[in-house]
Amino acid sequence: MAGVKNNRRAQYTQQTIQDTVLGLLESKPINAISVTEVCAQADVNRTTFYRYYTDIYDCVACIEKAFVAALHPLEEGTPAQALEHLLTAFYEDKKLSNLVFMEGKTKLLKRMQELMRQNGPEPPVLDGYQEAYISAGLQSILKKWVKDGMPETPQQLTKIIMDNILPSNLMALHDEICGA
Known about the structure:
The protein has nine helices and no strands. With 180 residues, the chain is mostly helical.
């Protein structure tokens, strides 16, 4: 017999618990979700929950890790194509979208950025301030996209992001603001 963590029943139970947590995140913040509530909705007892997770945050971390591990980033192409690829995966698993609003409680956006950096095409060289600025902008755009119900396709959102990061009128704006 396979170990507890590898048998189909255990995998089904873990998936049920994770789906329940994601479902609850659609209507309430993570700190308002209790293990008791998850167990009642998932129809499992607390002992079963604690066999797999230490708490709700641990369950969310497992969901994030599994999502990022399942991503297959583009190894060839441009950074814009890699971004579109990741946005498409995120778009296709909309239940995960609520995780982007859990400030300080989730590492999903950071894990996605690291995955792009490690396995994607070589990004342009930025200094620390530029990288922080672009990262915060990407997070804000993604949060707005999710909050609005993901009305744009990943292709449209990639264009929006690229147009905001690298606007075609950047030099004209620079000259206008700086008086050059």
